[in-house]
Structure formats: C-alpha cells, structure tokens
Amino acid sequence: MLTQLAIRDYAIVDTLDLELAGGMTAITGETGAGKSILLGALGLCLGERSDAASVRHGCERADLSARFDIAALPAARAWLTERELPADDCLLRRVVTASGRSKAWINGQPATVADLKALGEHLVEIHGQHAHQLLLREETHLRLLDDFAGNRAAVNALSETFRRWQATRKRLKQLSESGDEVQARRQLLRYQVEELDLLALGDEELATLEHEQEQLAHAEETLREAQHAAECCDNDEGGVLTLLNQAMHRLDPLPGSDRGALAEILAMLGEARIQVEEAVRELHRFADATELDPERLAWVESRLGEVHRIARKHHVMPEELPALHRRLQAELDGLEGGEHDLEALRAEVESLRDSWREQARSVGESRQQAAARFGKAVQEQLAFLAMGKARFEVEVSPRQSPQVDGMEEVRFLISANPGQPPRPLAKVASGGELSRISLAIQVVAARHSTIPSLVFDEVDVGISGATAEIVGQLLRRLGEQGQVMTVTHLPQVAAQAHHHLHIEKQAKRDTTLTRMALLDEAGRVSELARMLGGVNLSDRTLAHAREMLDASQQGAAH
User: Fold this and answer.
1) What is one Gene Ontology biological process annotated in the Swiss-Prot or TrEMBL record (predicted)?
2) How far from 57 is each of 8, 43, 218, 510, CA to CA, in Å?
3) Percent of the chain with pLDDT over 70
4) Strand pairing class (23-28; 13-19)
5) Residue of 385, 389, 384, 381 whose CA lies nearest to 418
6) Residue range 384-402, pLDDT digits in tens
7) Are β-strands 483-487 and 453-457 bridged in parallel, bridged antiparallel, or unpaired?
8) What is the torsion angle, in degrees rounded to the nearest 10, for the CA atoms of residue 395, residue 396, residue 397 and residue 400?
9) In angstroms, rounded to a whole number, what is the distance separating the alpha carbons of residues 437 and 475?
10) Of 309, 385, 544, 554, which has the highest C-beta tally within 10 A?
C-alpha cells in the first residue's frame, strides 16, 4: 500500500509531502489544477519514461519518492530479497535533471528504470482515463481475461518458450539454407588453417627471426671491425697501449717542483691503460663469439620470406599471422561442428514446439473456463450500473497459427438492448455505454488483482446522475479491500470516498504552483459544493453537499 509520496520541483509543484492511507481516496480540483501531476509523479517512481519537461521551470532537478507498506505483498518482498535488498520496507526514488537524464534508487540502492517498472508491477495497478479506448483493441481483451484467470505467469512462460522456439527455428533454417556456402567456406578454412599450421609461426618468433637475420647478415663486417679495433689498441707499432706506455715512461723520471702535479697525471694515464687493456680483452671475447654461419643465415632469410609471403596472401601484417591463425581455427571448429549442430537444433526445435503446445493447451483451457465467469461478473456490474438489460459475453476462438501468447483470440461482445445479438464493442457501444462497460470490466479486473493499491484516473468520464453515485459505491467497496485512489470530476463519486485530497493551482508573483491538501469534513463539504455548483457557493448548494456527504457515509456504514 502506498503510504507516502514526496515531490520536489516537479512540473508546477515546488514541495509536497503526502501521507496516504488505505480505503478510497478521492482526488479532485478544478480543470488544469494539476490532478495529473500527482499520478505523473507516482508514475515516474514506478518507472515511467521521463523528460526535461518534468522539472519545474528554473530548477536543476525534480526529486520524487514513494514509500510502500509491503507487509502484505509477498511477491514484492520476494523481488527485493532476490536482489539482496532490504525487504521490510519499500522506498522508490527517482531524480530527473533539467537535461532530461534520470537516476533511480530502491531502498537507497542505485537501480535502473527497468527495476522500478518491474517492482512497480507488484505495488500499484493504474486504470487510466483512456481505458475505454483500449477496450476497442482486441489484444486488450486477451490480457484482461488472462489477468482475471490468473494466467499472467503461465502466459509469460508460454511467451518465453515461443520466442526460444522461433529463434531456434530461425537458426536451423539459416544453417540448412546456407549449406553450400558453409561447405565452401569450410573447405577454404581447412586449406588456410593447414597452411598456417605448416608455417607454425609463434607469437614472438618474428621479432626473434628479424633480430637474428640482422646479426647474421652483418657478422663478417662485425668480426672484421672488432679485430681491427683490438689491433688499434694493442699494436707494437703505434697502438694505444704502446703510446700510453711511452707517455708514462717519459713523465715518470722528470725531476723538479712539478713532481706532485705529474703524479696525478700519471695516475690518470695508468687508469686509462687499465681501461684500454680491459677493452682489448672484451673485443677478443666478442670476436671469438661472433660466428659466420651462411647456412643459418640462408634458412632465417627463407623463413622470413615465407612469413611475409603468407602475410601478403592474407592481407595482414606479418606480426598479425598468429592471431589470424587462431581466428580461422576457431571459425573452422565452429563449422566442423555444424553437422552435429543441425541434428541438435532439429531436436531442440521439436522439444520446444512440444513444450509450447503443452503450455498453450493448458493456458487455452484456463481461458475457456474463465471466459464464462468473467462475462457473468461483468454483466453483474453492468446491472449495477443501470445496464441490467445488457448482455456481455467473452468469445474465445482458435487462431489459425501459433502466436507468442497462445492459440486463442478473445473478443468482448455486448448487446446493449434485448433482442439484439452480441456484437464487438467497437460496433455497438455508444460513448456513455462504453464508459460504463469499461468501468464494469475494470472493477471486475481489480477485484481479482493481487495488488492492493489501485489508481483510477477519471474512469468515470461520460457517467452522471444516479449511475455516478453507484460508481462511487463500487470504488468505495474496492477501497475497503485495500487502497483505491481515484481522480474524479463527479461529486457523487468523491462523496463516497473515505479520504478526500484537493488540488488547486495558485499564482504567486511570476510563478504558478500547485498545492494539495487532505480535506477535513468542512473542507469536503465546500469542495463538493464547488463541484456541484461552481465558484459562487449558495447556502442551498452547501446544504446539498452536506446532505450528499452525510448520505454517502451513512449508506456506506450500512
């Protein structure tokens, strides 16, 4: 049950906090006052589509939240528990920014709009003011009958089986029809994979080959230059070491006052001689390690040539060949298993078809059994709404081919006058009759709903007089079973409510705001009088309103 609704900067509402109770709550106000704002805010909390127009002019964002008591809603608690969310309470929050973006939370945890919508299906059921127009569409008839029969879960399962069946059939058809193309592709892949298998190029091999090729190709030049460098350093006829030794020999015996400064220079020359000697040894070791291997060079260059040839053939870079090899192998593996896949797909198609048929048979039997009961229940409500002579029937007929929701078509038929055969609603009912038929159907559907919070948005359009009072009585009785909120223009309906919420539009300076308030008894009398007689309230109108309210509440007590 909806217990609280908080609205911040939404449409023309700046701040609103509503405490809501069980029973029937009438929502009234002058045309354009913003009654739809309340339902719009609730709808956003339940996952309806948002846009920037939701945000009050000049504000950065609209902030909306709805709190529900879910103690008597095991489906809602189970939904929360499955997602590891607290299940002792239910708070839905939606924030819409001026740019049109929105964020959502469930019990303080971030959620998607789809999550809000999925959970909302367990919390509130909304009957819109255009429900009678939807009744002219026969797909609506099937959904209402299924809801009445309690088929929602079974039809969802049936639809899922149908979608899997059709998807598998499509896959089987594609594989069967593309047999020649698949065979040609398989042969090409086998040849390409075998060629790459023979090449067997490793992921890092190309870089290794290129490095080795460079070393082998320049080995002779490298060896020659290393030997020459060593000879330049260690040569009896002008080598670096010989010259260093000569320089040190000339400086060493010099007498005089410069002996101290020369000692430092001699030390430097000594260190240089040591470094050169070490360099000569390293040059000899490098030359000894350098191999001249023409045969290895020829093999490496041949290997590189083959790698580049195959890369050009596949229009890839040489370093991409190992990855290409893996992709082609994976595709070939998939096609090689295709023959087995065909047999498996054929078996799966048959299994899904048989499963769908069994599910459809069960749903079809449920629809046939519920059709008469639904028709009878609606006809009883029509009699209550001054259409006692009307005859309402639910026609369930077989379809020519399987559909996602079963093998039945459902049509609501009505005969508004005795002696006339029942015909489809769109061809028989007048506007006023259609409104009453719609309300009768919605009342029957609501009575069989497992959702305790029902919202009726001007479903009494086209109804007046004594019938309007009966409509109010129907809605009140539904409210006694849970919670009913109804937007109405009819005082006869509003008088029947347990609670009365009034909405009005106020102009302040350069802005217009909507205000909502729960009326006390005196406020209810004034609002009913306004609904009866307009802006200028006479004593007679107020007395009539008082009488209407007293009679409605006393009648309800009995």
Assistant:
1) DNA recombination
2) 12, 20, 78, 11
3) 91
4) unpaired
5) 389
6) 888 888 899 999 999 989 9
7) parallel
8) 130
9) 15
10) 385
Q: Which residue is listed with tokens 């020369």?
A: 262
Pairing of strands 391-403, 511-518: unpaired
Count CB atoms within 10 A of the CB of residue 168.
Answer: 20
For 44, the token pair is 């956003």
Phi and psi at residue 166, to the nearest 5°: -70, -40
Placement of tokens 């929105």 in the chain: 102
**What are the tokens at 349?**
């198609």
| Other beta carbons within 10 Å of 40 | 19
| Cα torsion angle, 458, 462, 465, 469, sign | negative
Instruction: Compute the residue count for the chain.
Output: 558
Helix axes 152-177, 338-384, angle to 10 degrees: 150
CA distance 496 to 556: 8
22, two tokens? 């069980």
The structure tokens listed for 500 are 């009365």
Contact residues for 143 (Cβ-Cβ < 8 A; gap 6+): none
- Sheet containing 423-424, strands listed edge to edge, beginning at the edge strand earlier in sequence: 391-403, 406-415, 423-424
pLDDT of 27-64, one tens digit each? 998 776 567 788 889 999 999 888 888 898 889 999 99
What one-character-per-residue DSSP string does 67-88 give?
EE--TT-HHHHHHHHHTT---S
- CB within 8 Å of 468: residues ≥ 6 apart: 460, 490, 492, 493
| Radius of gyration over every alpha carbon of the chain, rounded to an integer in angstroms | 44
Q: Are 162 and 356 in contact (CB under 8 A)?
A: yes
Q: Edge-to-edge strands of the sheet including 499-508?
A: 124-127, 453-457, 483-487, 23-28, 499-508, 511-518
DSSP 215-272: HHHTHHHHHHHHHHHHHHHS-TTT-HHHHHHHHHHHHTT--STTHHHHHHHHHHHHHH
First-to-last C-alpha distance (Å) of the chain: 26
CA–CA dist 29, 504 (Å, integer): 6
Q: Give tens-digit pLDDT for 421-449.
A: 888 887 765 666 777 787 788 788 777 77
137 sits in the region (left: phi over 0; alpha: psi -120 to 50; else beta) called beta
Torsion, CA 401, CA 403, CA 405, CA 411, rounded to 10 = -60
The b/e string for 279-294 (b: 16+ C-beta within 10 A; e otherwise) is ebeebeeebeebeeee
Single out the residue of 492, 499, 394, 397 nearest to residue 444, CA to CA: 394
Q: What is the 3-state secondary structure (H, E, C) of 134-193?
A: HCCCHHHHHHHHHHHHCCHHHHHHHHHHHHHHHHHHHHHHHHHHCHHHHHHHHHHHHHHH
Give bridge partners of residue 403 from the DSSP assignment: 406
Residue 266, Cβ neighbours under 10 Å: how many? 16
Both tokens of residue 178?
A: 């593309």
Determine how many CB atoms are found less than 10 A away from the CB of residue 510.
5
